[in-house]
Amino acid sequence: MSLDLSPAPGAAPLGRQVLSQARMESRLMLRNGEQLLLAVVIPLLVLVGGVLAVDRVGLDLDQRPIDVLTPGVLALAIMSTAFTSLAIATGFERRYGVIKRLGASPLPRHGLLLGKIAALLVVEALQVVLIVLVAWFLGWQPSSAGLVEVVAPAALAMLLGTAAFASLGLFVAGVLRAEATLAAANLVYLLLMAGGAVVIPATSYGAFGEVAEWLPSGTLGEALRGALIDGSFDGRAMIVLLAWAAVGTVLTATTFSWE
Question: How far apart are CA 79 and CA 162, in angstroms?
Answer without folding.
Answer: 7
